[in-house]
Design brief:
Bound molecules: ligand C2E, magnesium ion
Number of domains: 4
Helix content: 40-55%
Number of helices: 21
Strand content: 15-25%
CATH class of the largest domain: Alpha Beta
Number of strands: 22
Structural class: alpha/beta
């Protein structure tokens, strides 16, 4: 059964139609041949089409596969990268966390209003402050918040400007109620879009360091021993008092208080005793004066009091008496009773001066006068005192000038060997030939030179002049004996003395043994072994040494023993009283001591034949005094040398 055109394959139908062959009419042979050719060609075309299609399909799938491979590789790469980054992030977070947990610092975050939104563990743990109680609050709202105004301002300004801030230290109350101090630094945080979201930073507990530095600051303003304000605070307080009084036309009094006999207590009973005296004095001054009065210790045994308000001289005298009385009360120390007195100088604002510096100088000068006039008393600063001070200043000026203008001279006094009566030495004594006042004795200007820092210059001049004089006499054919010169304690602690001595000897070609240096007993006590090395060097050089004014100080034998001296000079205060019993005893002991230590005993200030005989009887080696000769200028002294 034939299907007909509708039922056959479209390809076949198409060929049949092209050949105009219906299904009803069978083709002739040529038509049949053409039909077969067509069908065959159609198959061939179909094959070709399929081939082309298959080829393009294969190509497409190859491309797909390679695309797929590329995508896979891309994905793998991305996955490794993500894994790596995640690991790096995890590591860095872990590192940060361990650092934060290890360190005593903490990390915090604030929102845009400065409120704490995050605090790492450990925040303020030292103070026992629970973290939860801090969240949601601003630093300034924390309990016990304490911070100086300037720092708060700096902090708020940084927040307002969204700038980083560093090292803001503020106090808060810790969980246990104790004050804590933290130091915070922070910087603004921006989100991905660059929008400000608050601050993030670190904090640390700086309580210990802050408390220590406050303690230090306190120490800088207070005297540790007595607990009183110190000199630095006094100077501030005085400036404040002046400013206050200037504003309100007010008055106040300034009292300088210096202890008498404090040094002796230190020297005889030791520093612990001295400390006790200072503490007791501080407490008494504080107790005697009003709450509104300011009391400070300036150092050493110097105290100062600032009394506000207008006071009459009578009223101030009462205060002065009261303080002197309180200071003079005995002080118990290790089953002993110590006693000191005070000297007080008073200057008044604005009567004496309106300048802080002048008031200090005036009170100091008045105090000095109280001391000079017998101690244990007070003095007001007066115009007379001002004149004395002015005189001293003028004197100082004159003294400075005399170094260059040749106003100083040396006088020489012989020292005699008692056995033979021969001159065994001489002492050079400085004199100041003042244009108006005539010859001024050393007692009036050596102390001034010491006080005013002129003594090293004076000492060098004496040394040089004595050596030059020795050289002149020798060049004139005379044979001057060993020459003694007096040293001041300031020279003993200066490092120029040795060179000064050596230079003077070298300059005039004098052998060291022709020179003798006199050190007073008081100097030896005061230097307390500190000059041992210098004395040893001088001894090594070959100069001689003598201990002067022996018997007037309170030196210990061990100190005397350390001085490599060849002579011991018994003070003229004993020699002058011979043959008085007590003076005899002391002189005899001093001579025995000198001999015991291998020194020659020299008596000073011998004025009479009786004294001379007594000294001979006591076995004294040498003597010096008006009896043998007064100190004379070099020219006059040459007569002694010719004899
Ligand atoms: P000094 O070293 O004890 O000197 C002895 C003092 O006693 C001298 O007083 C002398 O003139 C005096 N004198 C001597 N014989 C007698 C006497 O028989 N009777 C009395 N009453 N006095 C006598 P001067 O010259 O006034 O010196 C006083 C002190 O000044 C000296 O005491 C000495 O410590 C010091 N001095 C003198 N010259 C110098 C010097 O160049 N440098 C230093 N640093 N101090 C000096
Ligand atoms: Mg002397
Ligand atoms: Mg003397």
């Amino acid at each position: 059964m034939a299907k007909g055109l509708e039922g056959w394959h479209a390809l076949l139908n198409r060929q049949l139609q092209r050949l105009e062959l219906g299904s009803e009419s069978p083709p002739d042979l040529s038509g049949w041949q053409a039909f077969i050719d067509r069908v065959s060609r159609a198959y061939e075309e179909a094959d070709e089409d399929r081939y082309l299609m298959e080829r393009s399909q294969a190509q497409a799938s190859e491309e797909m596969a390679s695309l797929n491979e590329a995508l896979r590789q891309e994905r793998d790469l991305l996955e490794t990268r993500v894994a790596e980054r995640t690991e790096a992030l995890r590591l860095s977070e872990a590192r940060l966390a361990s650092l934060v947990s290890l360190s005593s610092d903490w990390v915090w975050e604030q929102d845009t209003n400065g409120r704490l939104t995050y605090l790492s563990e450990g925040a303020m743990v030292a103070g026992g402050m629970p973290v939860s109680s801090l969240l949601g609050r601003r630093a300034q709202e924390l309990d016990g918040f304490e911070c100086d105004e300037r720092t708060v301002k700096r902090y708020l300004q940084a927040l307002a400007d969204r700038q980083p801030f560093r090292d803001i230290v503020h106090g808060v109350r810790g969980g246990d109620g104790s004050p804590r101090f933290c130091r915070i630094s922070g910087e603004p945080v921006l989100d991905a879009q660059g929008v400000f979201t608050g601050y993030r930073g670190v904090g640390s507990d700086v309580t210990a360091a802050t408390l220590a530095s406050r303690q230090l600051a306190l120490l800088a303003r207070f005297d540790v021993l007595t607990g009183l304000p110190n000199r630095a605070q006094f100077i501030e307080e005085l400036d404040r008092a002046v400013a206050r009084a200037r504003r309100s036309n007010g008055h106040f009094s300034l009292c300088f208080i210096d202890l008498d006999g404090f040094k002796q207590i230190n020297d005889t009973h030791g520093h612990a005793a001295g400390d006790e005296v200072l503490k007791a004095t501080a407490a008494r001054l504080r107790a005697e004066l009003r709450e509104s009065d300011f009391v400070a210790r300036l150092g050493g045994d110097e105290f100062v009091a600032l009394l506000p308000g207008k006071a009459s001289p009578a009223g101030l005298s009462l205060v002065g008496d009261k303080l002197l009385h309180a200071i003079a009360q005995p002080i118990a120390f290790q089953e002993r009773e110590l006693q000191v007195h005070g000297s007080i100088g008073i200057a008044l604002y604005p009567d004496d001066s309106t300048q802080a510096r002048h008031l200090v100088e005036q009170a100091d000068a008045a105090m000095y006068l109280a001391k000079q006039e017998g101690k244990n008393q007070f003095r007001f600063y007066t115009g007379e005192l001002a004149r004395t001070v002015a005189r001293q200043l003028a004197l100082e000026l004159d003294l400075r000038q005399s170094f260059s203008s040749g106003g100083l001279e040396l006088h020489f006094q012989p020292r005699v060997h008692l056995g033979s009566g021969a001159m065994s030495g001489m002492e050079a004594l400085v004199r100041w030939d003042h244009p108006q006042r005539g010859l001024v004795p050393p007692s009036e200007f050596v102390a001034l030179a010491e006080e005013r820092g002129l003594i090293l210059q004076l000492g060098r001049w004496v040394l040089d002049t004595a050596c030059r004089q020795l050289r002149r006499w020798r060049d004139a054919g005379l044979q001057p004996p060993r020459c003694a010169i007096n040293l001041s304690s300031h020279q003993l602690v200066s490092d120029v003395l040795f060179d000064d001595v050596r230079n003077a000897l070298e300059r005039y070609d004098i052998e060291p043994s022709a020179l003798e240096l006199e050190l007073t007993e008081a100097m030896i006590t005061a230097q307390h072994g500190r000059a041992d090395a210098l004395l040893a060097r001088l001894q090594g050089l070959g100069v001689h040494m003598a201990i002067d004014d022996f018997g007037t100080g309170t030196s210990s034998l061990s100190l005397i023993h350390r001085v490599p001296a060849q002579s011991l000079k018994v003070d003229r205060s004993f020699v002058g009283r011979l043959p008085d019993d007590e003076a005899m005893g002391i002189t005899r002991a001093a001579i025995a001591l000198a001999h015991g230590m291998g020194m020659r005993a020299v008596a000073e200030g011998v004025e009479s034949a009786q004294q001379l005989e007594t000294l001979r009887g006591l076995g004294c080696d040498d003597a010096q005094g008006y009896f043998f000769g007064r100190p004379l200028p070099a020219d006059a002294f040459a007569a002694h040398l010719r004899r």
